[in-house]
Amino acid sequence: MHLNSEAILRIEGLRKVFRSGKSDLVLFDNLSFQVAKGEMLAIIGESGAGKSTLLHIMGALDRPSAGDVYCAHLRLSLLSEEAAAEFRNREIGFVWQFHYLLPEFTALENVAMPLLLRNRPWEEAQGEASRWLREVGLEPRAHHRSGELSGGEQQRVALARALVTEPRLLLADEPTGDLDGRTADSVFELIARLHRDCQLTSLIATHNVMFARRCHRVLRLQNGRIEEIAPGALPA
Hints:
single chain; 236 residues; alpha/beta; Rossmann fold; six-stranded mixed β-sheet; four-stranded antiparallel β-sheet; 33% helix; globular
């Protein structure tokens, strides 16, 4: 598949160190790679390899110990806390392994929340939220609270909430990790369709090799280093 070669993300010399007692734990060091606009990139690796931390840094939720992340022409390490929050709100949709829906609100209200935080009028936010629930096949469940939804439905609502602000980047951290096989497959299919339809650039941290095989590129994070693997070279 031909992709736009314009790099939307540029990662240069990234290092992350955690203080552990009297010693330093180097999670990863000197990571450098680019992500092209429109790409669907899988990041694989064992638990503890640093996949989530890497996503957090690329999404301006965490800062590296050294190195830089550039998104378009922004250098994320130079952003103030306020500017980083604005960047996340404007450019990025996050989906986590756990849905983090607010239990006291309905699916519609959860999806509308990012727009309400932007001071959009309720009628407008409600209309957009309804449209996104329809997009993920859950409009009939709009007035159900999260506890009344299945795991797959909760993750679909979380995906709608992530995309309601029309971000350019989707960062997904084990988005199907809590789901059974069939449900996980349907959620991944939805992510892949929305990636295409919404012209997203998507970075997906996953343990699921079958899903990684269906991405444009695969990066494996291992022993603090990153290597690129051809998707077709992964075990079927």
